Amino acid sequence: MSVFKKLKSFYLPYKRDFIWSMVFLIIMAGITVVYPVILQMTIDEVVLGGKYNWVPWISLGFFTVMAVKALSAFIQHYLADMFGIKSVYSLRNALYEKLQRLSFSYYDNAKTGDLMSRLTADVEGFRFFVSFGFSEVLRFIIVVGASLCVMMYYSVSLTLVTIAALPFISVVVYKFDKNVHPAFRGIRESFGRLNTKVQENISGIHTVKALSKELVEIERFDKSNEDYRTKQLYTASIWSKYFPLMELIGNISVVLLLAFGGYKVINGSLKPGELVAFYSLIWYILWPIMNLGFTINMFSQAKASGERLLEVLEAEETIFDKENVRQNEKMDGHVIFRHVTFRYQTEEATVLEQISFDAPSGSTIGLIGATGSGKTSIIQLLSRFYEPSAGDILIDDRLIQEYSLNTLRSQVGVVLQETFLFSSTIKANIAYGRPEAKMEEIIDAAKRADAHDFIMEMPDGYNTLLGERGMGLSGGQKQRIAIARAICTNPAILILDDATSAVDMETEFHIQNALQEVMKGRTTFIIAHRISSLQHADEILVLDHGRIIERGTHDELLVRNGAYRRIYNIQYRDRDALMQKAVR
Ligand SMILES: Nc1ncnc2c1ncn2[C@@H]1O[C@H](COP(=O)(O)OP(=O)(O)OP(=O)(O)O)[C@@H](O)[C@H]1O
């Protein structure tokens, strides 16, 4: 029950709907039990007692009772549905908000497809129980309770004989629940994996096709699908094993009723109408008990879903605003790293060791080094996507933790190697970081990123709709839109993470030109593999296995004859030698 307790803040606010639906449920359930009583009166008083003048009144009474029942059923269903729908509306919002707050380290291990299935199938599973499960439980208590009372009123001994088999059904129901709950959790998890497979395949369809891996992918999907099928079949087998057993025990009750009840009618201690009423009433007890399997089924699904939802809701938020943080502060962009050491939560080894540097406001810092040497990790720490394991990062002489995340990130513009564009207009993509930006500001940002001209050549200019992942644009165009997006927020610090790696020389030249303009007055970090991209930096940091092994300007580093010189030689001298050979 603790799952439902933990999630109560989502459904308790709508308890009014629930309470009213329960009121109408009580009316409905109460009326259900009146039906056998009317039947008993009709047989014993009207048919056998010869009181035929009662017929119109009994008919009218019966009609009225049924009309009230129909109306109550309508209102009850409507309100129960409202209760469920409103509850999961806030639950879905809370989950989405949580996903926005969770840090990078959570997403490093999360699977998109699985998260999607939590936000859709699991939320629905939970809604179904909130809408119908709660009322089923109450209906069970009322109908079974009221039926037992009426039966007792007619004959205590017959009631006791009839319900003698019920404890056995309860044992079966209990065992059913114990087996079916883990089975449902298995189904949900398997469905999450199936979703992940589909999502990853669609996202990576270019790679799949480029490497002709369609058949391999189909086989892999088949494996996940097979697992899902097996889990479902297993659950179905539990169901088919226990349900007939419950029905069999239920039918033993009916046999006992007919045998002992028939004997009582024959010896005159029970009226025939009462036996008929008993026959109806016993099913009012048996059906809900057997149906308990279905209710438990629903409950188990909802519990399994609720657990998966709680896993998201209760996931630890590692990066958040501390108290009294600085809001809306304009920064100068003076960045200091002091002995920063860092390791990813999932990894044993540190990826950054004792990183220290001072980047005065408006300066340009270049980061170069082999892949995996830690360049991206440094700038991820600056945006507080992760927290350092040791050491301090300061901007304008304050620890970055003293600024609100909003302030910090609005002052750090990032252009990544891989650009993500939303399936919306070019205008909205550029203004994503500052939706209130005026059209002139958007155009200005695009002009400075050297994107304005090609945007104007598009059919709808700035209103051109982009497909998912920015289909319809070349790598260089996407990159320039990303640069426009970064400068639209007018950040004090600009990070260009391999921003020109995916483009040809001519486009790189265009982007470099645009960047010269954009970098003016901002502290800029350029991560690059090409020396041409960062040779004008005020300081270049050469990284190797998470350590700064060399630092200085381009010229200083060249004369030092170290790692930088070696990269330079590979990229320039050898190329020049080759070119000269070619000319000769
Ligand atoms: N999210 C992550 N979780 C665990 N380890 C990571 C994560 N991101 C990077 N790493 C590891 O940290 C190390 C540094 O990676 P980083 O991305 O900072 O290198 P890089 O110098 O930017 O590489 P590249 O030039 O290829 O972009 C690598 O060994 C990498 O495997």
TrEMBL record:
Xref: InterPro entries: AAA+_ATPase, ABC1_TM_dom, ABC1_TM_sf, ABC_transporter-like_ATP-bd, ABC_transporter-like_CS, P-loop_NTPase, Type_1_exporter
SMART domains in the cross-refs: AAA
PROSITE patterns linked: ABC_TM1F, ABC_TRANSPORTER_1, ABC_TRANSPORTER_2
Residue intervals of the ABC transporter domain: 335-570
GO CC, alphabetical: plasma membrane
Record key words, sorted: ATP-binding, Cell membrane, Membrane, Nucleotide-binding, Transmembrane, Transmembrane helix, Transport
Entry's localization field: Cell membrane
Record GO terms (molecular function): ABC-type oligopeptide transporter activity; ATP binding; ATP hydrolysis activity
Limits of the ABC transmembrane type-1 domain: 19-301
Superkingdom assignment: Bacteria
Cytoplasm keyword on record: no
Membrane-spanning intervals of the chain: 20-42, 54-75, 126-146, 152-174, 248-266, 278-299
Membrane topology: Multi-pass membrane protein
Pfam families: ABC_membrane, ABC_tran
Protein name as catalogued: ABC transporter ATP-binding protein
Organism of provenance: Neobacillus bataviensis LMG 21833
